[in-house]
Specification:
single chain; 9 strands; 148 residues; seven-stranded mixed sheet; globular; alpha+beta
Length: 148
Amino acid sequence: MTLILSSDDAPHFLTQLCDWFAQEWGELDPVNLRQSDLEGPSPLLAISEEGKLIGGLAFTIAPEPQSTTNSIWINALLVAPEHRRKGIASKLVSAAEKAAALKGITELFVYTEYAALYTGCFWELLETKEGNSVLSKALEPRVREEPL
C-alpha cells in the first residue's frame, strides 16, 4: 500500500524529490510557495510499503487562465517508472485536492500533457493547445485535518 504524506511530515525526502524534478524538467523550486496573501500546500510524497520515495507532487503560484489573478497550480507530478500504472498518480492528485482545500483554496489548476489522468479524477478540461491541456477542479472547503 502506498502512503501519501505532506513533505512537512517527511522533510528528509525533499532533496530526493527535488533531484527527480530537476532531472525531469530542470530547475524548479517546489518549496517556495508564498506570494502576498496566497500560500500553497507543501509538496506531497508517495512512500512505498518499504519506506522509499516512489513519487511526488508539487504546487506553484501562477495566474489563472485568461486572468491576472494568481492561483495555485499543480506544477510537477512524477512517479518512479517502476511504480507507474498502479494508481499512484491518481492518489497524489486526490491528496493535492485535499491539501489545497485545507489551505482554503477553492480551485486548483494544472497544465499538462496527461489530461486523461486529471479528467479521470473529474477535473474540467479548459483548453488544449499543441498537445498540452489546462484543467481545473473546484474544491470543497475543508475545515479540519483529514488524512491525505
